[in-house]
Every structure is written in C-alpha cells, then in structure tokens.
Write a structure and sequence with these properties.
It contains 19 helices and 20 strands. By secondary structure, the protein is of the alpha+beta class. It folds into five domains: 100 residues, Rossmann fold, CATH 3.40.50.20; 70 residues, 2-Layer Sandwich (Dna Ligase, domain 1); 128 residues, 2-Layer Sandwich (D-amino Acid Aminotransferase, Chain A, domain 1); 128 residues, D-amino Acid Aminotransferase, Chain A, domain 1, CATH 3.30.470.20; 46 residues. Strands 13-12-9-10-11-14-19-18 form an eight-stranded antiparallel beta sheet. The protein has a five-stranded parallel beta sheet with strand order 3-2-1-4-5, sandwiched between helices. Helix 1 links the parallel strand 1 and strand 2.
Length: 524
C-alpha cells in the first residue's frame, strides 16, 4: 500500500549522518555526488576519523561510549534541525532500527533515510514479524508466534516442536539471547539464560521457541521499495560463513540457488515487504535447508553491512536509491530488467584474533595499506596510525572484489589479500586467506557450520595447506591450472607496470596450460 507521504516530494539538500566509521564515509560519498551537504557527528574517540574530515560540517556529539554519543537520539535530531538538515541517515547499527527514534525523526518534520517507524515496529521484533507475514504465503520455521517465559509452558511447546530447537530473542540479533537446546533437561536453564541475555542486550527479555534447522544456508534478499507500492528484489547474498551467528564472508549471488529458487525467494521477500507497507532499502533473511526448502528468518529494516556485493553485481548505488526514495521519487527499476553481472565476495576485516576464538584485539594501525587494482574495493573508516577504540564494533574495513564468475572472484580476493599490508592488532585477514583456500568453500559445499566444522584457530592458520587439499578433485581447475593462472597473473602484473620480472616467462611464451585455464576462469 502506498505511503501517506506518496506524491509529496521531500527535497533533500542537507543530511545529518547519524553514524561513524566506514558506513558514515560511505553515505557521505554518495551524498556528495548527489550535491547533498553532509553533517557528520563524532564522539571524542572519533575526532580524527576520516568521515569527520571529509564532511561539509562536523560536530562533537559526546564522550566515547555510544550510550553517551551515537545513541543520543534527541541530541541528533536537535542538531539536524539547528543545522537546517532535511534528513537523517542512520546507516546501520546504533539507531538504524530503533522505531522510537524513527518516529521522533518523523514528528520533528525530518525525513529518515530508511523505512517508516511503522515498518520498523512490525519487523523489528521477530515475533511481531512472524505475525505480520502470516497470510502472505511466507514459509515459516515451525515455532511459537508469541513470547514464552514460563518454563512449564515452554516444556509443553518444546515437546510439540521437537528437539533440537532454538530459543531466540524477539527484539534483537547477532546471536544475543540465542540458545540451542538439544533435549528437555537443558530447556529450563537455557530459557533463563536467553531471557537474561536478551534483556541485557536489547532492554527486552522476550524470547520465543523455534525448530532448529540443522546445517542451513543463510540467504538474504535485498529489497528496494518506493512510496508508490513498487518493490523490486536485487537478488540474493550468501551469508553462511559466520562466527557467533555474525557474518564474516558474504557473496553475491549464492552458489546454491538456481533461477527458479532465486525467483521464488525473491518474490517471497517482496510479499514480506508488502505485509508491512515497507519502503526504502530492506533485507529479508531466509534459512535454506539441505532439501532447498527456505524459511523466513527476519527482516532487517536498514542498509546492510554487506550491501557492496549487491552493488557490484547490479551496478546500482544502493545509498543513492535510498536518498531518492526518501525524497519521494518513484523507483524506475523494473524486475524484468534487472540482471546479475558476475560475482562479488566481501570479507569483513575485523580487529579480532582468529587464533583466539575471534576475541577482539585493540591497538594502533601501524601499517594500513589496502590493495588496489581491477575489481577491488575497500570500504573503511580507518587510516594508518589511528587507534582502534574499545567502545565500538571491531570492524576495520570491508574488502570487496568483483569478477566475471565465482572462481575468478576467489582468485581476485586471494590476490587482494596478498597485497594488503596491515600491521598492529590481530585481524581476520589471515582467516580470509584460509577461507579462500578451502575446497569446501571453493566448491560451494558449506553452510552456517563451516567455521565449527573446518576451522581450528591457530592450527588452521599456522599450518600450510597441503597442495592436494587446497583444491578438491571435483574443482573446475586442477592444481597445475591454478599454478599456470598464478604465473599468468604475475607476468601480466609485471608487464603492465613496465618492469618485467626476470623469473617470469615472457608474454610471448606463457606457462603451459595458462591460456586455457585463464579463459575458463575469466570468461564465464
């Protein structure tokens, strides 16, 4: 249903970016291209951050803790009004999915570059979201459609659902307030712990029960919806490489979806948006089981961290689309015209130690020289010499590559990772290299249990992978072909830089097998 604001243009000339780090800089770049003035905010810990220097205007918002700075909604709205802004872009995290903040922005006469407060209320709570999509032919994981807190009632429901099952927080995500329960004897304590953790993390202890889907793929569908009832899906992202239910590697498209399944999931995602009168950018998340049956998981009412891979395969600027729709412009995209172009992979580079259970690691970025070259993109809010604050998410940067097909994208990611010079805290760079070498990943034979199944921390990262395990026997490229490609890449890089390296064969005499392998890899 079209919004009440439909047909009422809302020109945006100046925007306050209510966020920090790489997403603040990402939004700022598009706003500048569109001729929109930018107002940045910063805590004491972010005074020297790039987004602060590059904004047209920048204002301190409080001490380092987010509760005293980036989460102060009233102060952000007041500053936006004082500076003559027409809109606030919340990015992701912080206040981006806070329905009360969205409503306050609306009541202040400002435009939130995102969905309405009503949509956030409907989809921000997982129980409410399941209730909202009922009747829209959306496949749901068997479970409760209401919060459960009483142990006796929970035991009755659990036995009806069957084990194993999940206890999940209704108000949040990221693995907080989530417990896997394998048998009835574990239920009481797990329920208590989940309620306590959900209350501490989200201020809401409501939890619900759901059938545990073993070894699923985590697939999400990117949506765009305007004020005029027009919604399109921009295909899917594969997000199954996770630790603590939080994503580390994302790619688009997924290697396990065919045309029919992609269409079915995309159309189901559109129905989810229609269930709550959604507008602007949103993502519908699904679980895909081993029999290719998919189930609605939740809807994220914001831009996603991993949106760049969708931008790469569609050629669209999702932040620009957000601004255009927030300004009341209709979508000019038509589903039948959208196409997938190549393959894109993103690695989240976090200040975490994969050798020590991915625990956060702090310090100064002594060396930070990202890779460059064709098909390589880096979104970051940090620069060399900066300290990593303890107060925020440990995400340092997102390394994104784009290539004609999946194998070429993997090869490009490996090259980019080899070029990345980063010294200081422990990061997930080595983990990313390890993932790209695993035959299960290369062949697309993985699910959300990938890390638990294959990764052994320091043992995995510090032990060289034997050549016979780096590429499985069914891989489209043999080891000799991969070596030939590597040689061809090296000679191409050397000659393109004008100084051929002596150990590499000349262009007129390529390595045996390089030509055929190169064509197979780079020509889909």
């Amino acid at each position: 249903m079209p919004s009440a604001l439909a047909h009422a243009p809302r020109p945006i000339h100046k925007v306050l970016i209510a966020n920090r780090g790489e997403i603040a800089w990402r939004i700022l770049r598009t706003a500048r291209e569109m001729g929109i003035e930018t107002v940045a905010v910063f805590s004491e810990a972010d005074r020297m951050a790039p987004h602060v220097r590059h904004a047209d205007w920048a204002f301190p918002i409080g001490p380092a803790p987010s509760s005293a700075s980036y989460l102060r909604g009233e102060s952000l709205i007041r500053l936006a009004l004082e500076q003559g802004c027409q809109a606030i872009h919340p990015g992701y995290g912080f206040l981006s999915e806070n329905a009360a903040f969205a409503k306050a922005v609306e009541e202040a006469g400002l435009v939130l570059v995102g969905p309405s407060s009503r949509s956030m209320e409907a989809m921000g709570n997982k129980v409410a979201a399941k209730q909202a999509v009922a009747g829209y032919e959306i496949p749901l994981v068997p479970g409760t459609d209401h919060p459960v807190s009483d142990p006796v009632q929970a035991a009755e429901i659990a036995q009806a659902i069957g084990f194993p099952l999940l206890i999940k927080a209704a108000a949040g995500g990221g693995g907080k307030g989530m417990r896997i329960v394998n048998r009835l004897e574990e239920l009481h304590e797990s329920l208590h712990l989940a309620i306590s953790e959900a209350s501490n993390a989200f201020g809401d202890g409501a939890v619900f029960l759901e059938k545990y889907i073993a070894n699923p793929r985590h697939i999400e569908i990117q949506l765009m919806a305007d004020d005029y009832g027009h919604t399109v899906y921009l295909f899917e992202r594969e997000c199954s490489i996770q630790r603590r239910h939080q994503k580390l590697v994302e790619e688009a498209p997924s290697s396990c979806l065919d045309t029919d399944l992609r269409k079915a999931m995309g159309e189901a995602a559109v129905r989810v948006a229609q269930a709550c009168g959604y507008r602007n950018a949103g993502t519908v998340e699904f679980l895909l089981d081993q029999d290719n049956r998919f189930y609605f998981l939740e809807m994220n009412t914001r831009l996603q961290v991993e949106h760049p891979v969708t931008e790469c395969i569609t050629g669209l600027d999702l932040v620009r689309l957000q601004f255009e729709m927030a300004a009341g412009l209709p979508l000019t995209l038509h589903q039948e015209d959208l196409r997938i172009n190549g393959h894109s992979i993103e690695l989240r580079i976090c200040a975490e130690d994969p050798r020590n259970q991915f625990l956060p690691d702090l310090g100064k970025l002594i060396r930070f020289q990202p890779p460059q070259g064709p098909g390589v993109r880096l979104d970051s809010g940090y620069e060399e010499g900066m300290d990593i604050p303890v107060h925020y998410d440990p995400l340092l940067a997102k390394l994104i590559v784009h290539a004609p097909n999946r194998l070429a994208a993997i090869a490009r990611m490996k090259r980019a990772l080899d070029e990345f010079e980063l010294a200081g805290p422990a990061t997930t760079l080595d983990f990313g290299r390890w993932v790209m070498e695993q035959s299960a990943f290369v062949e697309g034979r993985f699910d959300t249990g990938f890390i638990a199944q294959y990764f052994r921390g320091a043992e995995s990262l510090d032990t060289p992978l034997p050549p016979w395990e780096s590429t499985a026997s069914e891989s489209p490229l043999s080891l000799s072909e991969e070596i030939a490609i590597a040689t061809a890449v090296l000679q191409h890089q050397s000659f393109s830089q004008g100084h051929p390296s002596t150990p590499v064969q000349s262009q007129s005499n390529p390595a045996p097998g390089a030509s055929d392998a190169w064509q197979r890899l780079w020509n889909p």
